[in-house]
Design brief:
The protein has 409 residues and is of the alpha+beta class. An eight-stranded mixed β-sheet has the order 1-2-8-3-9-16-10-15, covered by helices on one side. A four-stranded antiparallel β-sheet has the order 12-13-11-14, covered by helices on one side. Helix 1 runs antiparallel to helix 3, helix 3 crosses helix 10 and helix 8 crosses helix 10. 44% of the residues are buried.
């Protein structure tokens, strides 16, 4: 474990923010900076079949050390960080032997990480926390997963007495903008199943996620002098406001939890002549998901019928609930659950209120549940991760490799 912390700190120092508006693959060149570093490191620790393709996808192999034929399994993490908050010039802070109180992230800016606001902090008293300095995100999502996978592979290489089958690992770009699996070569990866190491707190084990879509509403208006506008002006801002007023007011991220879906307006801009709304739709239930998409279409039709052809509506599916593909091979979840229990970790099996590369990969022929990486408060200045949680993630990866070799006949 001695390389785990410095490895993670090296990774978060590299800005790998992805860009949802880019047309390139990966969406930002800076992701390749970390990718090249990882390729070199994988060679150094002794991994085989190390490769990086033209799109920045890294794959490598830990060969089997047993004669028994067992399935090839995989572990996957993503290299990029979210475009929602800056990941440039990350300055991690170590809080050793956390006392359970407030953590001053930035004294000058009065930015405080407090258990009064983030209750999960209380369970990590006495541990070593890695936090931000309050001005950037940390990047534990998902550089913690990257560091944990590499550390687990290095441990297995250094401990051949632990028997395992062939293990494949992969690191992907652009997961945060929903494109992490778009160019993933499942056939080349060659695993029967895999696990993304991209969850949050210790024990998380997820095989169900949102169905997801993005919608774009473009509204054109007609500008007329306001003193003479009666029955002539079409105010695009007003139309945008009316459109949003017809959405269910309580079905938004800040008012939903568990299995509840939502509409999330994340961008709006405009003037009298034109306006644009960008939103996402999320729901675990397929029928309710389809109903949400239909509602947006119905609102468009209703306003078009009232005001005329001023609204252009488009929608794009992003990913599906992977439960459909994982349930038929549920033993892959049970192996991960048993690995946690063997390490005295209480499995927390719950649906993801989001998505991972695994949700798309499962529909591409690679069933792929999600396992905790250990971090909290992703995508913002209050992100943190306990070092002990990262160590437990490494142990779970190693134990899954071991159990797969033992249990599969």
């Amino acid at each position: 474990m001695e390389r785990l912390l410095p490895r993670f700190l090296e990774y978060v120092a590299v800005d790998t923010q992805s860009d949802p508006y880019s047309k390139t693959i990966p969406s930002t060149d800076k992701q390749l900076t970390l990718a090249k570093k990882l390729v070199s490191e994988l060679h150094q620790i002794g991994m085989e079949e190390v490769s990086i393709d033209q799109n920045g996808y890294i794959m490598a192999t830990l060969p089997s050390n047993i004669t028994k034929k067992v399935p090839t399994i995989g572990f996957i993490a993503h290299m990029d960080t979210t475009p929602d908050f800056t990941g440039k010039n990350v300055k991690p802070q170590l809080v050793k032997d956390y006392d359970g109180g407030d953590i001053i992230l930035n004294k000058k800016m009065n930015i405080v990480l407090s258990p009064d606001e983030f209750e999960d902090l209380k369970q990590y008293q006495g541990q070593t926390l890695i936090t931000t300095d309050g001005t950037t995100l940390l990047g534990a999502d998902d550089k913690a997963g990257v560091a944990e996978i590499i550390t687990a592979m290095e441990y297995l290489l250094n401990h051949p007495e632990i028997k395992h089958g062939r293990i494949r690992i992969a690191f992907t770009p652009d997961e945060e903008i929903g494109k992490g699996a778009h160019n993933f070569d499942v056939k080349k990866f060659g695993a029967e199943w895999a696990y993304t190491i991209d969850g949050s707190q210790v024990g998380e084990l997820e095989f169900e996620n949102f169905n997801a879509a993005s919608a774009n509403i473009k509204i054109k208006g007609k500008s007329v002098h306001p003193g003479y506008a009666k029955d002539k002006m079409v105010n695009a801002i007003g139309l945008a406001n009316e459109f949003l007023s017809l959405l269910p007011p309580h079905e938004v991220p800040e008012k939903t939890t568990g299995m509840e879906g939502f509409f999330h307006v994340h961008k709006i801009k405009g003037d009298i002549e034109s306006a644009e709304i960008e939103l996402i739709i999320r729901d675990h239930d397929k029928e309710q998901f389809d109903a949400r998409k239909e509602l947006l279409s119905d609102i468009t039709d209703k306003l078009t019928g009232r005001y005329g052809d001023y609204i252009e509506f488009s929608i794009e599916d992003q990913y599906k609930n992977m439960r459909e593909k994982v349930e038929p091979v549920f033993h892959i979840v049970e192996i991960a659950e048993e690995a946690m229990q063997a390490l005295d970790i209480e499995p927390i099996i719950k649906p993801i209120r989001g998505g991972t590369d695994g949700s798309q990969l499962s529909f591409m022929g690679l069933p792929c549940p999600n396992i905790f990486a250990g971090g909290h408060n992703f995508h913002g200045r209050y992100e943190y991760i306990p070092l002990e949680s990262m160590e437990k993630a490494v142990q779970v990866i190693v134990k899954i490799c071991e159990l797969t070799a033992i249990q599969i006949k």
